[in-house]
Amino acid sequence: MSQIRAFLVAIGLLGAAAVSTQGIIEGFKLLQAALGYGDNLTITYIVGGALATFSYIVIAITYLHYRPVAIHAPLRRPTLREVGWVVGGIVVAFGVAILIEAIGAVLGAEGATNFATAAAVGNPMLVYGLLLVGNIVLIGPAEELLFRGVIQGRLRESFGPALAIGITSLGFAISHVPSYWIGGSDLFTLGVLFALLGIAAGGLILGTIYERTQNLIVVALIHGLINAVGVGITLVMLL
User: Fold this and answer.
1) Dist CA 222 CA 152 (whole Å)
2) How many CA atoms lie within 13 A of 79 on its CB side?
3) Residue 1 reports pLDDT greater than 80
4) Per-residue pLDDT tens digits for 26-63
5) Local structure of 27: helix, strand or coil
6) d(CA 134, CA 7)
7) ∠ CA 58-208-211, rounded to 5°
8) What is one Gene Ontology biological process annotated in the Swiss-Prot or TrEMBL record (predicted)?
9) What is the pLDDT of residues 65-102, one digit of tens each?
10) Is 92 exposed, middle or buried (0-12, 13-18, 19+ CB in 10 A)?
11) Distance of alpha carbon 204 from alpha carbon 162, whole angstroms
């Protein structure tokens, strides 16, 4: 019974994140239309996307208020071992991402367009410039708090770390489906499939590192830096 309850809680939290994200984005689109900026996806992403991401923090804190979960986030200077985990995690994550992308290319998968990529078409320097910082200060911490901290932490209590990591990583990938839908991608393509496989693999890496280090700040930093490096490479290519 406890495992069923934990699984349903995880689904409920994932559902809450999906509903809040979609609700905030669609609500902000209506506000934009009322103000005469209805077709500006860049504004939708920058403001609506930031609010949607912040809602992850609200969902996590709200759940923790009613049902505490052990979250390890020591506010101190990182140890040399933790710095090693950050560097190693980034290297492994990029290696796995490149491998998955290469397999996808061999099978004919084309690149999928997500919300950020579509929003950057109108003003790439602005969007990617903000993303460079936003990944580290908001996206990484918010997503890791909800997914690794709360969801994986709650599942760990009933399923143990291995299954908790697997279930959370699958949910983490599924939670990114709306981003590709908003970005205009056909969800039933190899491109989106391999993009989601890459995200799931990243979730497995982050979840494993969280269990090994017992430090949410470490995985939040890895998550933010991985994304920021990718954005930085894109910015350099645009210069």
Assistant:
1) 17
2) 7
3) no
4) 999 999 999 988 789 999 999 999 999 999 999 999 99
5) helix
6) 31
7) 70
8) CAAX-box protein maturation
9) 999 999 988 878 889 999 999 999 999 999 999 999 99
10) middle
11) 10
Count of positions (residues) in the chain: 239
> Of the candidates 87, 129, 127, which has an alpha carbon nearest to the alpha carbon of residue 225?
87
For residues 17 and 133, give the distance between their C-alpha atoms in angstroms, rounded to a whole number.
22
Longest dimension (CA), the chain: 56
Whole-prediction pTM: 0.95
- Residue 108: both structure tokens together: 């004919």
Percentage of the chain beyond pLDDT 90 is 91
Residue type, 235: L
- Position 45: which residue type? Y
Domain extent listing, the chain: 2-238
Measuring CA to CA, how many Å separate 48 from each of 44, 53, 108, 145, 227? 5, 9, 33, 20, 19
Exposed / middle / buried, residue 146 (Cβ in 10 Å: 0-12, 13-18, 19+): buried
The reported pLDDT for the residue numbered 38 is: 78
The rounded Cα 135 to chain-centroid distance in angstroms is 9
